[in-house]
Amino acid sequence: MTELWQQILSGLGSGFIYASLALAICLVFQGTGAVNFAQGVMATASAYVAWTLVTRGMPFWLAFVLALVASFIVGALIERVFIRPVEGSSPLVMLTVTVALLIGLQAVVALIWGDDPQQLESPFGGGSVEVLGARLTAQQLGAAAVVLVTLLLAGAFFRFTTLGLRMRAAAQNPASARLLSIDVGRMLALGWGLAATVGAVAGVIFAPTLGVSPAMMDSSLLLALAAATLGGFESRVGAVVGGLVLGVAANLASRYVPGIGSDLQLVVPFAVIFLVLLLRPQGLFGRASSVRA
Amino acid sequence: MTLLEMRGVRASYDGVQALHGMDLGVAEGEMVALLGANGAGKTTTLRAISGTVAVEGAVVLDGRDITGWPAHRVARLAVGHVPEGRGTFVDLTVEENLTLGVLARGSRMRGQVKEDLAAVHDLFPILREFSGRQAGALSGGQQQMLAIARAILGRPRLLLVDEPSLGLAPMVTTEILRSLRVLQAEWQLAVLLAEQNARRALAVVDRAYVLESGRVVAAGSAAELRENTAVQDAYLGAEQTGRPA
Ligand SMILES: Nc1ncnc2c1ncn2[C@@H]1O[C@H](COP(=O)(O)OP(=O)(O)O)[C@@H](O)[C@H]1O
Ligand SMILES: [Mg+2]
Description:
Order of helices and strands of chain B: EEEHEEHEHHHHEHEHEEHH
Bound molecules: adenosine-5'-diphosphate, magnesium ion
Oligomer: heterodimer
Largest sheet of chain A: 2 strands, antiparallel
Helix content of chain A: over 70%
Structural class of chain B: alpha/beta
Number of strands of chain B: 10
Radius of gyration of chain A: 19 Å
């Protein structure tokens, strides 16, 4: 029983990585209709920025904040430069662009920082805490808390601020939004910037666990795509819930299903994507009408 | 005082020309109709003004040449547009839809928001009652009221309204056209109303232009056009109720 509880909690811990990447993917999709396959490598670049600053002697939290700011700017710039010219194009064009971004950014990351994995020390120390009978490291707990706060802030931003409302309006009905003097292009760039920032939070705060390397986010991206599929690409809440569910599911599967070791964990997102597309293509939280072609 | 003037405006979609040199004017505080059959160019004319279709020629608002301006900048000059299809933000609540209208006024008349919201709610009580509902759940007529309310809350000086009667029952159409007339008088608006249903439109507007194939073919006061036999034969022959939804 305690063992199961332990597995659930640590699955939930990694679930926060998938939840934030899934939220980022969902923000981009809602705005520009692109499934951003580069969302993972963008978070990787953020982790490298933080790592570079920390190795130069900067305190972790300052490096964290600077990495977020840089990620926001780069995310918005990517929208301006690479997405704007193909705005409103077919899903196939969008797919090609974000896959090209993925390959391009991976090359840039390897070029700047090399292929050797690096270590970033945990800002939460090496201790561990007992939570309702299960033992969690301070890093696990702290990282989850930081991501949770980020997700809540993002939710509050969209729900309660007028800028959040304008961004939702621009994503949902751009033609009508323009008639209400909303600069839709600016809102989309903002959306990409925010998405990059949310992804960066996960990338930097989980870097001590994942290790800093060009491939650090690869499997998380797959799980995040599965999470967004599960929750529905149109639903921010759905993406987050999907991420947490997948974290737990992947962890339990690797522990209890014979034949699925941690190497085969990725069978889980594959199975989820397949089943959801088969049974409920709009996702658990999506509406049938909003499935994009 | 002329508020809007279009001179020789041409517009095309993918190389196919839809407007062939439109000339028209709207004075401040005046209510004008654009009449014409389906495909005559009414929607494109409104879109040429609000900047949602590429144009050549001259679109002049309040003495300023706004030809080629992007839509969100035209909207900031106090031009409201109730688009064809109503432009509802279906996943947002009725209240959020109206808030977007208020935000569109920018820093102009900020102190006036409470009174304006109350006035809009008095004109369309259903919007108060359904305030927390998803806008997509409203009926066609209610969404049309929402679209007008949203545009009007931006405090436009010029309101463009595209076929509000489309797909609505005659009773609802009458109610909506009447409320446009009320708004025009009470909010000091100029209204440019595109309408296929000429008889109903001529009952509420001051003047009208009749379009055919992207050109003005007749113009005059509402009374003149009601008497004009050519217009009568073409557009007033039978009671038109608009296309079905
Ligand atoms: N999005 C579009 N793409 C191509 N042609 C269009 C489009 N919208 C309108 N048209 C054409 O432009 C002409 C004018 O249309 P429109 O302005 O919609 O007329 P109305 O509003 O009077 O029915 C028509 O011939 C129509 O077929
Ligand atoms: Mg039309």
